[in-house]
């Protein structure tokens, strides 16, 4: 059976000599993803993901520090520098109604209420108050679209599109 994996962090370096790693998290759910006992997979180019079990986790500055049951010294973990930490699709938490994973939003076509193609979502930026979707226009320019109810009218994952109330002045940046 083919398994789908999703990135939750990147191992950016080793930490200490007991096989701990410094991880730059790419998940909003660090407390859930990195709890002791949680299973993660480390994925490197051209090889099958390796299953690892979290032994310890703590945060340090902007990084997450992880130790794994299967790794006991720096030599065993050195080869994973730059590798992605992943989870399987079965490990993903369902999101509340109206919430989406970034990977579901990026690539969607954006249409106005008048059914005019406005562009494609190329990136999601976190700003604190609300996310901002970067829309690449057909002319190559980018427009920042606030992901708020007044602007985003419908997200249709089946049709791979978003319907928006295109505010006057958005294109004049």
What would you note in describing this structure?
By secondary structure, the protein is mainly β. It has two domains: 5-91, Elongation Factor Tu (Ef-tu), domain 3, CATH 2.40.30.60; 102-168, PRC-barrel domain (SH3 type barrels, Roll), CATH 2.30.30.240. It has helices at 30-33, 74-77, 102-105; strands at residues 5-15, 20-25, 39-43, 50-60, 63-68, 84-88, 109-112, 117-126, 131-136, 142-146, 152-156, 161-164. It has a six-stranded antiparallel beta barrel with strand order 1-2-5-4-3-6. Strand 7 and strand 8 form a beta hairpin. 21% of the residues are buried. The mean pLDDT is 88. Its main location: cytoplasm. It comes from Ligilactobacillus acidipiscis DSM 15836. Residues 104-170 form the Ribosome maturation factor RimM PRC barrel domain.
Features:
single chain; about 170 residues; mainly beta; Elongation Factor Tu (Ef-tu), domain 3; SH3 type barrels; six-stranded mixed sheet; 12 strands
How many β strands by DSSP?
12
The oligomeric state of the chains shown is single chain
User: What is the CATH class designation of the largest domain?
Assistant: Mainly Beta
Query: How much beta, percentage-wise?
Result: over 45%
**What is the total domain count?**
2
Q: What is the number of helical segments per DSSP (H or I, 4+ residues)?
A: 3
Rg estimate, integer Å: 20 Å
CATH topology of the largest domain, which one? Elongation Factor Tu (Ef-tu), domain 3
Instruction: Record the strand order, biggest sheet.
Output: 1-2-5-4-3-6
Q: Please summarize the sheet with the most strands.
A: 6 strands, antiparallel, barrel
Keywords: Chaperone, Cytoplasm, Ribosome biogenesis, rRNA processing
Domain Ribosome maturation factor RimM PRC barrel: 104-170
Subunit structure: Binds ribosomal protein uS19.
InterPro entries: PRC_barrel-like_sf (IPR011033), PRC_RimM (IPR056792), RimM (IPR011961), RimM_N (IPR002676), RimM_N_sf (IPR036976), Transl_B-barrel_sf (IPR009000)
